[in-house]
Amino acid sequence: MLEDLNKKAKGVGLHVADAKKPKLFTIRKVKNGKLVAKNVDGDEAMKIIKKYK
């Protein structure tokens, strides 16, 4: 799941990482490392990635 999200996020300049809680993710901008979203599940992460396109 994480690898798939990262492949899609890389195209729009984002990076997805595991959060401290299981099955949740954190999304940051690649350019400056600023936090975009924290503790989101896979479906929410996909919505955020699509929004940044």
If you had to describe this structure to a student in words, what would you say it looks like?
The chain is an alpha+beta fold. The relative contact order is 0.25. The protein is globular and about 25 Å long. It has one domain. Helix content is 36%, strand content 30%. Strands 1-2-3 form a three-stranded antiparallel beta sheet. Strand 2 and strand 3 form a beta hairpin.
Q: Give the overall form.
A: globular
**Biggest beta sheet summary:** 3 strands, antiparallel
Distance between the termini: 20 Å
Strand order, biggest sheet? Answer: 1-2-3
SSE order, one letter for each helix or strand: HEEEH
> Which segments are poorly predicted (pLDDT under 50) over 5 or more consecutive residues?
none
Number of distinct helices: 2
Give the rounded overall mean pLDDT.
95
Determine Rg (CA atoms, Å): 10 Å
Quaternary structure:
single chain
Fraction of residues in helix: 25-40%
Strand content: 25-35%
List keywords for this structure.
single chain; 53 residues; alpha+beta; three-stranded antiparallel sheet; 2 helices; 3 strands; globular
Task: Provide a compact summary of the structure.
The protein is an alpha+beta fold and 53 residues long.
